[in-house]
Amino acid sequence: MRTQAEIAQIRYGLGLSPHVRSPTVPNDMLDRLTRFDADAVRFPIPLFDAAHPTLLEQRLMRRERSAAGQSGDPIAIAEVQERYQAQRKARRDAEWLHFRTNLARGAWGEDAFRERLARFWGDHFTVASRVHESSHLVAPYIETAIRPNMTGLFADLLWAAVTHPMMIGYLDQGRSYGPNSVLGLRRGLGLNENLARELLELHTLGIDGSYDQDDVRELAELLTGLTYRPDRGLYFDAGRAEPGSETVLGRTYMAVADMSVLRAAVDDIAAHPDTAFHIARKLVVHFISDEPDTALVAALAARFAETGGDLMAVYDALLSNAAAWEPLAMKVKQPMGFVTSTFRALGTDVERFFDARHTHIKNGIYVPMQTMGQEWEHPISPEGWPEEAEAWVTPQGMAGRINWAMTAPERWVDELPDPREFVVAALGNGADAELRFAAHAAESVRDGVGIVLASAAFQRR
């Protein structure tokens, strides 16, 4: 039976490691969240506005290319094209560096609960790039909107996420115009309900929440002034805002030509009882079981409501409940978690990881994760990655996991560990007698290590 320390590192962290120690008791896990984010400094990802090439830099490049083309000057065209190609390369290099860095934070970071929360909330507020220009900006979005706000009030986290340029672009808010607004009437444009719908259905109340299509439409009309441009940033555009008042979830908001009314509506939605239940249930499902304990969900929802959505208080309610420490591992690791925990268990050298060639990272990690069913930063919908085991335990997915388990270790460590010792290092008391015997009886060290990594005990948390 797993100890509490092992559960802390596997269920609420990213796996056991012979070299990296994460907090193992609730008070230490919570205390870490209040301290300096050392792993973000050790493995840096730039904030959104500092992630080059920025959206503004790329917009200016498009203008330069257009002007050079219109000039017909072959020297000017060649010069701009050279800088354009350099910009494209910088974008691709940044995207791959962010992939490495995200993985490194989990594999070699000492604050695994923080990393798990960053991944959870990044998935809860899913965005993906719809255009090449923003392909390297998903990680900086999480660094800017999610990571600094996931230990404060949920309302602040919600506002930071739904008003971020990546969310506005992902959910087509830039195409939403009030049907009766100045610009809507002039251009014959209308509403796009994507942001309003996902804000209610996914981010707050949940799909079974107490809202209807009228609430979606009224909220969409309320949000029409929310606008982003690379050269201006986030702002309220009165020209596209639907005039008049809007009623959302029984509350009426008067038209005001600034962000204040939008923030008031978002705060009210964040404080709705259905939001408390939805967030509580998602946390329990993510960390503990696809079939969540109703009493535990109720306890988290109550703490959310009592504290006005204080997320630290909600995490405390989770970690201080005995139901959160049941020894049975019921969750299947997602591919990113599986790969991360493999690196932790093997004690892979971090410098070797960062020194590895791009093709080694792509073909040895990124592509195998795709085979397992998870293409990093490319979820199939705004719902994010699925939680249920059935989504990951598929013939192709399991084949990918087994192949990774049998082939990856010798690519990343010079000398494979003794399987008899590795089964304990990787699983602690979670390894049953049958698995221990299989590790001991393996025909080779390679097979023994692979058997441990491919086992159900290692695949679950």
Automatic annotation (TrEMBL):
Matching InterPro entries: DUF1800
Superkingdom, natural source: Bacteria
Pfam families reported for this sequence: DUF1800
Protein name according to UniProt: DUF1800 domain-containing protein
Organism: Marivivens niveibacter
